Amino acid sequence: MTHRQRRGRASRTALSLVAVLGTLAGAALVGAAPAGAVSSKVALAPGVAYERVDIRAAAGATRAHVLSVDLRDPRVRLDLLYPGKVASRSVVSAMADAAGAVAAVNGDFFNISESQHPGVEATGASVGPVVSRGRALKGAVPDGQRFGPALPPGTSTEDVIGVGVDRRARLDGLALEGSIRTPVGRLPLGGLNQYALPQGSIGAFTSDWGSASRVRATCGTDTDRAAPCSTDTYEVTVRHHKVVSMSGTPGRGPIAAGTTVLVGREAGARQLRTFFAGEPVKVVRRLVASVSRVPYRFALGGYPVLRGGRPLPGLDATTSAVRTAVGVADGGRRLLLLAVDGAPAHRTGLTIAEVAATMRTLGSVDAFSLDGGGSSTLVARSPGASAVTVRNNPSGGAERPVPNGIGVFVTR
After folding, report:
1. Dihedral over Cα of 328, 333, 339, 345: its sign
2. Are 365 and 311 in contact, with CB atoms under 8 Å apart?
3. What is the C-alpha separation between 97 and 101, in angstroms, rounded?
4. Per-residue pLDDT tens for 300-350?
5. How many CA atoms lie within 13 A of 260 on its CB side?
6. Residue 249 and residue 278: Cα distance in Å, rounded?
7. Distance from chain centroid for Cα 40
8. What is the rounded distance in angstroms from the CA atom of residue 248 to the CA atom of residue 253?
9. Which residues make Cβ contacts (< 8 Å) with residue 4, sequence separation at least 6?
10. Burial call 374-395: b when 16+ CB within 10 Å, e when fewer
C-alpha cells in the first residue's frame, strides 16, 4: 500500500468515526470548516492549544471554541479563577489577566437573581463546592436551591471537576464535613460560605465570603428555591474562638480575618440562641471527596454529562443553548475546555446530550457541564500578547460577570 493510500484510508476512517458518533448522539464535528473557521490547532504556549470547531447539531450548525491542555507538561497547571471573595463576580478576561493565566473559561452556575424574594440581595455566589490552591472556600447549596437547568438523574450540587495534587483531573463529589464545638457539646455544621443553607441548620461565613448580605442563606427550602425566607433566624459572631456578639437577623458587610459568623435558621437558630458572650467556640470544617482520596488543588461545581465514555442517562436532548463544558482525557492528564459561540450566526447551540457527544468526539472519557448562556466565555492570550482576548462571542453581546472560572497557567 502506498503512503497516499494509507493516508486516504486513515482520513476516511476518521471521518467515518465522526459520522457514526454524530448519528448515535445527535451531534457531529463538521469535517470541512466554513470560511473564516480555523481548521487546525494553534499553539498558545507549551502544552496549550486552541482551535475552533464547527458542529452539526439538531438545531443547526453551531461553532465551539476549544482549548486543549496537557497536564503531562510540568510547566502547565490549572487553578481556580475568582475575584477574591465567594460572594463576588468579575468577567473572565479580567480574572485571567489579574492572575496571569494563558487561557480560561467560566465556571459554575450561581445565584444570579432574587426576583422570587423581593428586597433580598442576590449574592453572586456559586452553587457548588469550591477549592482554590488546596483550600476549601465554600460548600454546596441544597439541590433544590441551585440555579441552572435541571440536574441529570443521579447527580447533585456536590459534583465537581477538579485537579488533585497528583496533577490529574477527575470528576468527583465534595461534601462538607464539620462541627461547631462548645463546652457543652458539638453541633453539626450545615454550610460554609453558601448563599443557601439547609433547613434547620447552622452555616459558617468567613472572610472568604465577602461583604454581601447573609439574609439569602435563610431563604427558600431544600426542595423549593422560591419558598419564602425563614422568619426564625439568628446570628452569632465568633472572633478568635470566642462569642463576641449576637443578632436576631443575618447581617452584611466584610468579615475580618480570624472571625466566623454563624447563621442559623429554624432549629439551627434555636441552638444558636443558647450561646452567650465570651463562650469558647471552635468551628472545624473540611470538604470530603466521595471518590478520590487525593487532596484537590482546585475544584468547582457544575454537573457530569459523560462518565467512562458513556453519556449519563436522562440527559436533555431537546433544549439547545450556548454551553460551556470541560472534558477529561488520557487518564486525567489532558483537559478539553469548550465554549459554544453566542454570535447570532452560531447561536443555535447544543443540547446537553449533544454536549456529551461532542466532548466524547473530541476525545474526552469524562465530561462536565459548566454555566452556559450569557456566562459562556473562553479567553486566550496569543503568544507575545500582554492580555487575553475573548475568543467566543458572548450571547449577551459582552462578557457577563461570573463568580469563578478555570484558569490555565504556564511557567516559562
Report:
1. negative
2. no
3. 6
4. 999 999 999 999 999 999 999 999 999 999 999 999 999 999 998 877 899
5. 22
6. 20
7. 28
8. 16
9. none
10. bbbbbbbbeeeeeebebbbbbb
Maximum alpha-carbon separation in the chain: 86
Q: Is 53 helix (H, G, I), strand (E, B) or coil?
A: strand
Q: Can you tell me the mean pLDDT for 12-34?
A: 40
- Residues 228 and 225: their CA atoms lie apart, in Å, by 9
Give strand ranges (E) for 144-190: 159-164, 169-182, 185-188
Which residue bears the cell 450561581?
Answer: 110
Q: 92-120, pLDDT tens digit by residue?
A: 999 999 999 999 999 999 999 999 999 99
386's grid cell = 500582554
Going by C-alpha positions, the residue among 361, 390, 359 that lies closest to residue 375 is 390
**Burial of 252 from C-beta contacts in 10 A (0-12 / 13-18 / 19+):** middle
Cβ–Cβ under 8 Å, residues 223 and 236: no
CA 146 to chain CA centroid, nearest Å: 12
How many Cβ atoms are within 10 Å of 396's Cβ, its own excluded?
13
Question: Three-class SS of residue 354?
Answer: helix
Phi, psi of 44, deg, nearest 5: -95, -35
Query: Element (H or E) spanning 272, and its range?
Result: helix 267-272
Burial of 401 (0-12, 13-18, 19+ CB in 10 A): middle
